[in-house]
């Protein structure tokens, strides 16, 4: 059995107990589900990520620096309003989605 002869995929599918069609159906079902609401922090981060990110910083480093800035930020009302509006959008979209 060679490293890339494809037989491992059929073995894996047998171990999973199916043809794989069930998983494809679940993925299709989730793709129609409304996108979750963003938090105030993520609205703020979307606006400020470019300023925070410096050369050589990884994702974890950016997240840590952003978290520290967010923690000491005094006025978060702008982003909290955006998050509330997005939460309302999500709830109304979910109500429509659940009726399907």
UniProtKB/TrEMBL annotation:
Q: What would you give as a GO molecular function for this chain, any one?
A: DNA binding
Q: Which residues form the HMG box domain?
A: 34-98
GO biological process terms held by the UniProt record: regulation of transcription by RNA polymerase II
Could you tell me which residues belong to the region Disordered? 1-31
What positions does the DNA-binding region cover? Answer: 34-98
Q: Which InterPro entries match?
A: HMG_box_dom, HMG_box_dom_sf, HMGB
Q: Which GO terms describe its cellular component?
A: nucleus
Cited PANTHER family: HIGH MOBILITY GROUP PROTEIN DSP1, MITOCHONDRIAL TRANSCRIPTION FACTOR A, ISOFORM B
Q: What is this protein called?
A: HMG box domain-containing protein
**What organism, scientifically named, is this protein from?**
Mesorhabditis belari
